UniProtKB/TrEMBL annotation:
It catalyses: ATP + protein L-histidine = ADP + protein N-phospho-L-histidine. Its EC number is 2.7.13.3. It comes from Pseudoclavibacter albus. GO terms for molecular function: ATP binding. It comes from the Bacteria. Keywords: ATP-binding, Kinase, Membrane, Nucleotide-binding, Phosphoprotein, Transferase, Transmembrane, Transmembrane helix, Two-component regulatory system. The keyword Kinase applies. Its main location: membrane. This is Sensor-like histidine kinase SenX3.
Length: 270
């Protein structure tokens, strides 16, 4: 198995014995490979907007006498700058999430509050596309977590649903309690995802359609961030999708138990 790696060390123990130590380095090697891939991907992704900004600035100098052209190149530069800033922010978010599975600033989070905020953040884009954003009734679920990270997670899911859906369609956001977990579903009637891509969309920088995602400002990092946030909260995420019909992303996170809620209330009151 190529993924297995051992470091063997031997030391003499007197005239008749040798101590042999075999250290399993497989996990260290895997982490190192993941890190190397990440750095290679990051460099590649950053080169695109940086290269574009450099070319556009040259064009801008050339076009100095033509106000229409100046406006055109300046607008394009602004777009690439926005893209670069989103990319760097998401890369930093993702490295932070990967570096630790603890949640700084964890508290009791009312799930419906986060879902309403996430839906609000996508309202302008949804309205512009005449997409109906429907949010379900409050199921009363509370989880122990970081509200900023959970907001980022549900914002990414709702904004993807809106982005990959046609005008006039419907995006639904709803939560329900199932035993001791809360199940949040974000569903759309959009372009859908082919079966062979459904696991890969959670990989860093993976996009089904590179050009389309780039043109709409996508980085390919959104779902990777979502998966890390959900897993850091002890949960999981699944996708159901049919090309041309739509997709449903289901996030499951354990509910905060009563003892944890009381303890956090008491800590807040201190
Ligand atoms: P991006 O910034 O490109 O949207 P994501 O990590 O959020 O990156 O998503 C990865 C890819 O998964 C997208 O490029 C898109 O191809 C696909 N995808 C994500 N959400 C949806 C959705 N709701 N409907 C269809 N395709 C989606």
């Amino acid at each position: 198995n190529a993924a297995l790696s051992f470091r063997i060390r031997a030391a003499p123990l007197g005239p008749r014995f040798v101590l042999i130590l075999a250290e399993d380095r497989s996990e260290a090697l895997r982490v190192e490979n993941v890190r190397r891939d990440f750095v290679a991907n990051v460099s590649h992704e950053l080169k695109t907007p940086i290269g574009a900004i450099m070319l556009l600035s040259e064009a801008l100098v050339e076009a100095a006498d033509d106000p229409e052209q100046v406006k055109f190149f300046a607008n394009r530069m602004q777009l690439e700058g926005t893209r670069l800033s989103r990319l760097t922010r998401e890369i930093i978010d993702l490295s932070r999430l990967q570096a630790s599975d603890t949640m700084l600033g964890a508290g009791i989070v009312h799930v419906q509050d986060v879902l309403s905020l996430a839906a609000d953040q996508s309202k302008v884009v949804a309205d512009a596309k005449d997409i109906k954003l429907v949010i379900g009734a409050d199921c009363g679920a509370d989880v122990l977590g970081n509200s900023d990270l959970l907001l980022q997670c549900f914002h990414n899911l709702v904004s993807n649903a809106v982005q990959y859906s046609p005008a006039g369609s419907r995006v639904g956001v709803g939560a329900r309690v199932v035993g001791d977990i809360v199940e949040v579903a974000v569903s759309d009637q959009g372009i859908g995802i082919a079966p062979q891509d459904q696991e890969r969309i959670f990989e860093r920088f993976f996009r089904v359609d590179q050009a389309r995602s780039r043109n709409t400002g996508g980085t390919g990092l959104g779902l990777s961030i979502v998966r890390h946030v959900v897993e850091n909260h002890g949960g999981d995420i699944r996708v159901w999708s049919r090309p041309g019909k739509g997709s449903t992303f289901t996030v499951r996170i354990p509910l905060a138990d009563e003892a944890t809620k009381v303890a956090h209330e008491a800590k807040r009151a201190e």
